[in-house]
Write a structure and sequence with these properties.
Layout (H helix, E strand, L loop, with lengths): L1 E5 L3 H13 L6 E3 L2 H10 L5 E7 L7 H10 L8 E5 L4 H9 L4 E4 L4 H42 L3 E3 L3 E8 L7 E9 L2 E9 L4 H18 L5 H16 L6 H4 L7 E9 L4 E7 L4 E4 L5 E4 L17 E4 L5 E5 L1 H5 L5 H14 L5 H12 L11 E8 L5
Parallel strand pairs: 1-2, 1-3, 3-4, 4-5
Antiparallel strand pairs: 6-7, 7-16, 8-9, 9-10, 10-11, 11-14, 12-13, 12-15, 15-16
Length: 390
């Protein structure tokens, strides 16, 4: 890696070259004009240019114009540029920094002043490069985690007797909302919607972990109450882990989740369900009556043991159920109560003939409304009971 000296004075270039060499920065390359250094930079690999010492007052292209041109070239946005000048005019220096200069060195150049400023500029560039590499790795890891979470979500399930669709809007790349729906036997289906406190990486990690545990229990025909009791014990264990930092102590790490779980027994025309601190699911009966499946217990993770009981309601053919996370309401309505009433009215009156069509109709009233709070993860599942005959 080389340092470039750009100065139309041969004597000044010689002084700077001697200082740089004696200070251990290697043998620099010299240029007598802005045009010549730009031509060299076009041929060079940006990573091989350690720093540029650029005189502000030169014949032809002046230093500020040259600095602007360098910053516009691919790969040189962060290359250290130290402008060299005999003037400490404030306006000129401000112009140099606005053009992209990293620092400045005053003439006559002092050896150790040059050393400190050059060393600091190079160190800053190294730290920036290190941060960029870290951010690139982090973004790659987040993309992989997002892909994993997306694959674990149940977005659609279509059977002759049962149809489900998901509307899903994470607040960031990763979400604390998790949905899993699966067949659990002949004419039987299980579903769960979880909303982990917070959003982002930590909430998504816990949601994926608990989804894995829930999916195993659901396929074993565990009752909704027992399933949520099991998840509650696991969430308590997570919430009880020793906190290592003040941020963790102050609740940055998720410590609880709300969840609602369903067991659809189509042969018996029964819906078994349990709700731990979650918003009510809404069940529309064939006569357009709306039932609210309210919470019967606090969120999971607040206590070492939960005692949720499974509830049961009738489930005739033609029912439609929607369950949703609080982000849908918080992002679009002035209050939770107003949001639930609006969703209830839409569920009762919308003539959409499929879950997908209903969710498409639901997005229309949501889209133009501005959030009244910080954005939160948001999702809605819609399920239609089509027939009890296979």
């Amino acid at each position: 890696m080389s340092i470039f000296i750009v100065d139309d004075s041969a004597s000044d270039r010689k002084i700077i070259r001697n200082f740089i060499t004696k200070l251990g920065f290697g043998i620099p390359e010299e240029f007598a004009s802005g045009e010549s250094v730009l031509e060299r930079l076009r041929q060079a690999e940006p990573g091989n240019v350690r720093a540029i010492l650029l005189d502000l007052q030169m014949e032809g292209m002046e230093g500020i114009a040259c600095c602007l041109r360098i910053r516009s070239m691919p790969g040189y946005a962060d290359t250290p540029i130290l402008v060299v000048t005999a003037s400490n005019d404030e306006i000129q220096m401000n112009c140099a920094f606005e053009a992209g200069a990293t620092d400045y060195v005053l003439k006559p150049i002092q050896k150790y002043n040059l050393q400190v400023r050059l060393r600091n500029a190079i160190q800053l560039d190294r730290e920036r490069a290190s941060r960029r590499r870290f951010e690139q790795r982090l973004q790659q890891d987040i993309r992989i985690a997002q892909e994993i979470q997306d694959r674990l979500l149940t977005r659609r399930l279509q059977r002759p007797d049962f149809e489900m669709e998901l509307l899903y809007h994470p607040a960031s790349n990763l979400s604390g909302d998790m949905v899993f729906v699966c067949p659990s036997g002949p004419q039987r289906y299980a579903a769960i919607l979880m909303d982990v406190m917070g959003h982002g990486v930590s909430a998504a990690f816990i949601a994926v972990f608990l989804q894995s545990a829930a999916s195993r229990l659901m396929q074993q025909n565990t009752t909704p109450g027992d399933l949520l009791n099991s998840l509650g014990r696991q969430m308590w264990d997570i919430a009880s882990l020793p906190r290592q930092t003040a941020e963790e102590e102050n609740g940055v790490l998720p410590s609880f989740l709300s969840a609602i779980c369903f067991d659809f027994d189509l042969a018996a025309e029964k819906l078994h369900w349990a709700n731990a601190g979650h918003l009510p699911a809404l069940l529309r009966l064939p006569d357009a009556t709306i039932l609210k499946l309210e919470s019967t217990a606090p969120p999971l993770g607040l206590f070492p043991a939960n005692n949720l009981k499974t509830q049961t309601v009738g489930l005739p053919v033609g029912c439609r159920l929607i369950a949703f996370s609080d982000g849908i309401l918080e992002n679009h309505f002035a209050s939770i109560g107003a949001g639930i009433e609006t969703l209830s009215e839409l569920l009762a009156t919308t003539t959409a003939n499929s879950p997908a069509a209903f969710l498409a109709a639901l997005e229309k009233p949501l889209r133009p409304l501005l959030p009244v709070r910080d954005m939160d993860d948001a999702c809605v599942i819609a399920i239609d009971i089509l027939s009890k005959e296979l």
